[in-house]
Amino acid sequence: METWKTLMPEIDEITVVDTHEHLEPEAWRLSAEVDFFTVTMTHYASSDLVSAGMGASDMDFLKQAGNDFSRKISIFMPFWQKTKNTAYCRALEIAVRDLYGISGITAETLPVINRALVKANVKGLYNDILETKSKIKCCVWDQWYTDLPEYDAFFKPSLRLDGIVYINKKEDIDALEARYDKNIESPEMLQEIMEIIITNHKPGGLVALKTGLAYDRTLGYARVTTNEAAIALERILLKRFTDKEIKRLQDYLMFCVAQKAYWHGLPLQIHTGLQEGNGNYIMRSNPALLTELIMNNPNTRFDVFHGGYPYGGELAALAKNFPNVYLDMCWLHAISPSYAVRYLNEWLDTAPANKILGFGGDYIFPEGTYGHLKIARENIAKSLGNRVDEGLCDKNEAVRLARMILHDNPAELFSI
Fold first, then answer.
1. Is pLDDT above 90 for 280?
2. Is-above-0.85 flag for pTM?
3. What is the DSSP string of 98-159?
């Protein structure tokens, strides 16, 4: 038997601290009219179908509740045949097999899968999939549907301040003034709004700050003085600004977010690498661009997302050089299992093992999280099995490392 397979029974039993999820509230799922496509086409596999050539109108038809299911199957299947090789699609097939008892997604099995999914759409669905079957202890929840989440022992919220940082025009400031009933005439007032938001979120069990601005701009944040930021803000208010002044104010505000994270004892989670969807600018999300932000905030703990895909070497260098940088594999196992196996081995060669966070589902629907975690456990076993075969550790040490990566390290980082 291959070594990694001998590690799987113990790795399968490890309780996971999930570093990142977008799961919609269970109540939303239960109240909606659902079918296989309205659930699964909300995330990831849909991007591969579009990449394979599916048109926007056909994708919209799949996502719309109540549309003819047979017609959906006829639209879906030609593109499924082109994309089922990807890990996004593999995660779906794993979930369908394990959760609904159907092996394979085909034109013939889809009606059966759909009936099983609809039947399972009852209260307790999330607990069954996430806690019982996935063995997830809790997840850091990039909650987006409410300003002030109530405390939940399973869902540990992170908070985005991107709406304060990503100021591009005077109207953005006007909207902040109206929302927070503040007269914004200085960078300090923007910092005060940040403080109010963080403080208001603390009762909900806040465990991290989060930024996803790699979708919108470069991760190259430069150090900016308060005076420079004040001048940039004034120019924006007067509508006499340049792109350089926009970036200068945003850079200053992201440094403020990093400082707030430290002051409140919270890690700062940062999206790097691949962006979800189609047609994005990958070059501006290289984690190496964060160096100035990291170097000038040595007390802030940076949770750097998605294994930096495809910039795994750059991320390894950051984690090796800076004590406050953590390598987070959230989403990564569903992007590319082979990359995850390869780079986990490299990261264990280059960075202390306590710096590696092994799993975050990063899904909107729980079936995706389940399938992704199955791939993640296998990837971690394969990478550690290779190290056993190379004589770098024994099986007991491999399991210890797996437990650190999947549970202990994120539990310590997020004080869980």
1. no
2. yes
3. HHH---S--TTTHHHHHHHHHHH-STTHHIIIIIIIT-EEEEEE---S-SSPPP-SSEEEEE
